[in-house]
Specification:
This protein is mainly α. Helices cover about 40% and strands about 0% of the residues. The mean pLDDT is about 80.
Length: about 100
């Protein structure tokens, strides 16, 4: 048994279909696409007015100081996480104690 596709068919009152699947309206041409493009000449370049300054040298990095700062930040992060975990454990014990008793 084939399903009835008449419900999904386009009504004939809209007119012929253009190349993009939409009906052509009376008196309105369908979309013909963008106008053709002519390529620029082969040696064409954008106008060049100002020469940019050369990049400056970045300051040297103190790798030992960077490593020490990262270690300190890691220690602080772990400390905050331990305090937060301990607080959550205490609060969950208090909550469970209130529910049980």
């Amino acid at each position: 048994m084939q399903p009835d596709d008449a419900y999904w068919r386009r009504p004939d009152s809209l007119g012929p279909i253009d190349g993009f699947g939409s009906p052509e309206r009376a008196g309105q041409p369908s979309y013909q696409g963008p106008p053709p493009m002519t390529p620029p000449p082969t040696q064409w370049r954008p106008p060049h007015h100002i020469e940019p300054a050369p990049p400056r040298r970045l300051p040297t990095q103190d790798h030992d100081r960077i490593d020490a700062d990262e270690a300190q930040a890691r220690t602080i992060t772990h400390g905050v996480a331990l305090v937060a975990a301990a607080l959550m454990i205490v609060l969950s014990c208090l909550l469970c104690g209130r529910l049980l008793f």
